[in-house]
């Protein structure tokens, strides 16, 4: 099957676990493993790795990146022909993800495996140099495998190419070196910095994927619409208002929102209004009718129905469950 894109619902963001680099002399090859329980991002800076996964073979050369899945069998297809240097990163995804490979696609969450990163996964193949950076073991065990995606409010789709030529490889190499340079840090600031660098890496790969999509204009309009709706959720929003503000026909705007967010503008708007209402119920003692008006619902009864349909509680009952009982 072809390698396409990982489509990840965020937040929560993917979590960095461990990283390293290896140099393989000619004749060495990547190890064979299956169901390792973590995603494995490989970035080659010199030479080439020849890797197969579930029937698809890839040559990963300088300036190219490959992501191996946690639930599939991967293996070498031939030894390195020249000295090969590459970086690698293990990470987890704690939210729903899928691979966009048409009818044969699959989905899941690698966190269900509960596996730790495979120690020495790359270095055991005969490389003459290896280094690795680990996050704290407690940090790995503390990943919220049972967290509901709804606990994070509105989610977005992160699209990561599983195989890509990097547009700016030197920037990616610098980030990899930054992860390795933090290997001596065992404090919160160092761990936080690792996650920040790792997320910047993923964002760069995400941009690589977007650059290959002819529908990038669709994504831009959907994101522009979402931003406008968030900034104006307290106001009355009509199709005519969307047309005036965004300079596109409402039907096209709706099509773009469905493609990117799987929601119409109105559905997106009402979900955001309900999230803001939850905040006001938690942080203020305002009457429910005032909160409904404050987040853009003109009819308090309609607000109550929408809230109950979304949360399975009335607004008053939602607030009451967080009140301190004497």
From TrEMBL:
<feature type="domain" description="HTH araC/xylS-type">
    <location>
        <begin position="223"/>
        <end position="321"/>
    </location>
</feature>
<feature type="region of interest" description="Disordered">
    <location>
        <begin position="102"/>
        <end position="130"/>
    </location>
</feature>
<keyword id="KW-0805">Transcription regulation</keyword>
<dbReference type="GO" id="GO:0003700">
    <property type="term" value="F:DNA-binding transcription factor activity"/>
</dbReference>
<dbReference type="GO" id="GO:0043565">
    <property type="term" value="F:sequence-specific DNA binding"/>
</dbReference>
<dbReference type="InterPro" id="IPR009057">
    <property type="entry name" value="Homeodomain-like_sf"/>
</dbReference>
<feature type="compositionally biased region" description="Low complexity">
    <location>
        <begin position="102"/>
        <end position="120"/>
    </location>
</feature>
<dbReference type="InterPro" id="IPR018062">
    <property type="entry name" value="HTH_AraC-typ_CS"/>
</dbReference>
<dbReference type="InterPro" id="IPR020449">
    <property type="entry name" value="Tscrpt_reg_AraC-type_HTH"/>
</dbReference>
<dbReference type="InterPro" id="IPR018060">
    <property type="entry name" value="HTH_AraC"/>
</dbReference>
<protein>
    <submittedName>
        <fullName>Helix-turn-helix domain-containing protein</fullName>
    </submittedName>
</protein>
<dbReference type="InterPro" id="IPR037923">
    <property type="entry name" value="HTH-like"/>
</dbReference>
<keyword id="KW-0238">DNA-binding</keyword>
<dbReference type="Pfam" id="PF12833">
    <property type="entry name" value="HTH_18"/>
</dbReference>
<keyword id="KW-0804">Transcription</keyword>
């Amino acid at each position: 099957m072809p390698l396409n894109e990982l489509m990840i619902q965020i937040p929560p963001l993917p979590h960095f676990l461990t990283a390293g680099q290896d140099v393989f002399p000619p004749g060495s090859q990547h190890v064979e493993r299956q169901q390792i329980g973590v995603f494995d991002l490989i970035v080659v800076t010199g030479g080439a790795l020849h890797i197969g996964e579930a029937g698809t073979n890839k040559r990963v050369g300088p300036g190219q990146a490959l992501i191996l899945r946690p639930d599939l069998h991967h293996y070498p297809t031939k030894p390195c022909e020249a000295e090969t240097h590459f970086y690698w990163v293990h990470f987890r995804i704690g939210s729903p993800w899928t691979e966009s490979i048409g009818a044969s696609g699959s989905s899941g969450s690698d966190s269900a495996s509960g596996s730790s990163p495979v120690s020495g996964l790359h270095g055991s193949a005969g490389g003459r140099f290896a280094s690795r950076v680990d996050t704290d073991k407690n940090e790995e065990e503390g990943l919220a495998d049972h967290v509901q995606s709804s606990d994070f409010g509105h989610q977005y789709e992160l699209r990561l190419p599983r195989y890509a030529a990097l547009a700016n490889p030197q920037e990616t190499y610098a980030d990899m070196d930054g992860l390795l340079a933090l290997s001596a840090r065992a404090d919160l600031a160092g761990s936080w910095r690792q996650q920040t660098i790792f997320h910047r890496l993923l964002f760069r790969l995400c941009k690589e994927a977007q650059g290959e999509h002819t529908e990038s204009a669709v994504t831009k309009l959907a994101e522009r619409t979402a931003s406008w709706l968030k900034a104006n959720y307290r106001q009355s929003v009509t199709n005519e208002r969307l047309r005036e503000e965004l300079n596109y026909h409402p039907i096209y705007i709706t099509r773009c929102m469905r493609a990117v967010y799987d929601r119409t503008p109105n559905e997106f708007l009402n979900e955001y209004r309900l999230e803001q209402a939850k905040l006001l119920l938690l942080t203020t003692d305002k009457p429910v009718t005032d909160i409904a008006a404050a987040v853009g619902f003109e009819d308090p009864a309609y607000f109550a129905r929408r809230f109950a349909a979304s949360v399975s509680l009335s607004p008053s009952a939602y607030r009451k469950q967080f009140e301190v009982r004497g």
